[in-house]
């Protein structure tokens, strides 16, 4: 079994999607904590933000591949005929679209981290960068909760 | 201090804002106008893939245009304004998408 076949495996795709999302969320939570505690060197902040952006991109690719290739044909019908069709019609639809907000937002935070801490203070961006980092993390967590709801609906749709 | 970094931040913030606005508008309209959803499906094989690619391209293009058109004389106020607007539009975007799909599910619109 070659690496491409392994990567196209459904559980592997979900694992990659979730795993990279967790790394992305943690990166921006870390960044938030660093900025709030004024404990960030410019280099560390930039590296953390970059890890976050790249992780979200990989999460997007893995999740997007799974969604396009497998979810529509295999999972969606189960949810829609199960006990919680709203898990697709409302939750999945919201999830798949607000996910698209994350990367441009995360990129903007990354660009802010290119400034030195003194410049962030000088331009009074400290509070905003905290809010923006926090928003990226909260969006990620919200999307994670929605993913859990969708998975649960699929499980119970298959069992029930 | 590096003015290019400030230009980059302003350009990215407004480009991200435009991208968010685009996703919200095209998502709502494509649900209400099936022919638009079909067009998106035909563009890159799946409507969500098309929205993803278009939103990324829009972000990149708008960021590039703004970077080269934003003047070098940037102060903190301009940067803060762009970031505040981005934050507001992201929150409004989440609310708009959520309310739309809830309303759509209950056949309100």
Automatic annotation (TrEMBL), chain A:
The keyword Membrane applies. This is DUF2231 domain-containing protein. It comes from the Bacteria. Keywords: Membrane, Transmembrane, Transmembrane helix. The chain crosses the membrane at residues 12-33, 45-68, 98-116, 128-154.
């Amino acid at each position: 079994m070659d690496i491409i076949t392994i990567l196209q495996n459904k559980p592997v795709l979900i694992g990659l999607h979730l795993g990279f999302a967790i790394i992305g969320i943690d990166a921006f939570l870390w960044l938030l904590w660093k900025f709030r505690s004024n404990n960030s060197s410019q280099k560390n902040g930039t590296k953390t933000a970059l890890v976050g952006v790249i992780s979200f991109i990989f999460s997007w690719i893995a999740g997007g591949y799974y969604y396009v290739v497998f979810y529509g044909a295999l999972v969606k019908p189960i949810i829609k005929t199960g006990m919680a069709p709203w898990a697709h019609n409302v939750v999945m639809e919201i999830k798949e679209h607000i996910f698209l907000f994350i990367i441009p937002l995360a990129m903007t935070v990354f660009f802010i981290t290119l400034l030195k801490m003194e410049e962030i203070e000088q331009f009074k961006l400290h509070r905003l960068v905290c809010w923006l980092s926090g928003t990226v993390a909260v969006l990620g967590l919200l999307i994670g909760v929605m993913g859990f709801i969708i998975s649960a609906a699929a499980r119970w749709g298959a069992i029930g | 201090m590096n003015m290019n970094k400030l230009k980059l931040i302003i350009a990215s913030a407004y480009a991200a804002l435009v991208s968010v606005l685009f996703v919200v508008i095209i998502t709502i309209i494509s649900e209400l106008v099936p022919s638009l959803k079909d067009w998106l499906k035909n563009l890159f094989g799946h409507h969500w893939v098309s929205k993803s690619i278009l939103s990324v391209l829009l972000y990149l293009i708008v960021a590039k245009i703004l970077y080269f058109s934003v003047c070098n004389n940037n102060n903190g106020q301009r940067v803060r304004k762009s970031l505040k607007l981005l934050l507001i539009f992201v929150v409004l975007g989440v609310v708009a998408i959520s309310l739309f799909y809830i309303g759509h599910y209950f056949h309100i619109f």
